[in-house]
Write a structure and sequence with these properties.
The chain is flat and about 80 Å long. It has a six-stranded mixed beta sheet. By secondary structure, it is α/β, with parallel strands linked by helices. The longest helix is centred in the middle third of the chain and has 26 residues. β11 and β12 form a beta hairpin.
Amino acid sequence: MTIFALSTAPGRAGIAVVRLSGKAAHAALHALCAGKVPKPRAAGLRQLRDPGSGEGLDRGLVLWFPGPASFTGEDMAELHLHGGRAVIAGVLAALGRLGLRLAEPGEFTKRAFENGKLDLTEAEGLADLINAETAAQRSQALAQSAGALRERYEAWRASLLCAMAYVEASLDFSDEADIAEGAFNAALPEVRALDAELDRALADHRRGEIVREGIQVAIVGAPNAGKSSLLNALAGREAAIVFDEPGTTRDIIEVALDLDGFPFVLRDTAGLRETASAVEQEGIRRTIATAEQADLVLALIDATTPHPVPLPLGEGTVLHANPLVQASPLPMGEGQGEGRFAESRALIPVLNKIDLASTTKAEADTGVIAISAKTGEGLDTLRAALVAFARGNYSGAETPLITRARHRQEIERARAALAAFLACAEAGDHPELAAEHLREAADALGRLTGRLDVEDVLSQIFSEFCIGK
């Protein structure tokens, strides 16, 4: 069925774009323009009228894109209108009366995928491009939507299919031992090389996923260290309640920031201390969980605290709240191997309230960034440290090979199947079983780009799109 939708943001605007896609697109355009449809892919200024009443709707630009040379692969049209609410409502109502259906979220892109105009990774890149809020996210999404991941994933699959051809040949000549063994052995270098490449892709410290979702930063410290004040100062607004009563912050408060093109998600947490309050204990439990899952921890320290205060960050993990006693990176205890925080172990000690402290030790000597969340002193240095962390860990010339959890899951499945194949080969097991492991790996890589049945993920992917895209 032919669909239509407003592709620009709803509400009053200078210009509004309405898109149509499907077999009846040309007929609908013909009816609105009184037969004066522009030449293909050439904008034409037309008077648009309601086909039923003849009432004038608007005077705008009309474009006609015959399929399959269009975004969706179907006949398409675009109406570039004045962005008044009455104009938009009149045109949409007229299209509905012509028998067209309002599009669902992401339906235009879904049709483009179904018609072979783009693969799943390109569709996901397009969704990320629409949602990009920083330069780093835009750059990554733009490369993905242009096929950067597809090309790499398809190269992996082509290599695997080559190995599968050798293994299948060994099965075809199973009666001739020398030929079968030679064909099977020819597949081993291909599989080992691909196995190593998938290993390298998985050992990326989740760089692509972190850029897409934002660098998670946990602000931790003792009560009244100034965590909420720091969050507000970096956000430039009153995002968190600031009060001098300990335990004011009970739940996690987060703010998204764009620092020099890098996306950050800052999380204000409950103060770490011994307490009998069940509610505050739950807040502290959430603080510890947030710190363990973060990509970076800002350990906030009160410069006016005369004695060191231990801050427990999980079993076997303690940071003293006074940098003059301890200013070393956060140690990881036994068993602290899960979560992104455990992988990077990244921590920046921050000495707050230097406007109130009588003396402070030089940053160069302690490795601590000295600030005043109240006056703003030192905040530029802290921002620069955050950007340096992002640039050192999440920027690079190459496009990340994994940008979503779905990609990682399928690559891990392919990697496990290749490992099973190599184990079969070393054990001298039946080649039929080894061949099945290669098919499993090929299926996993095929699901990355949508070459195989992926109905279970289509609704999730395309629901991320806005209506009209």
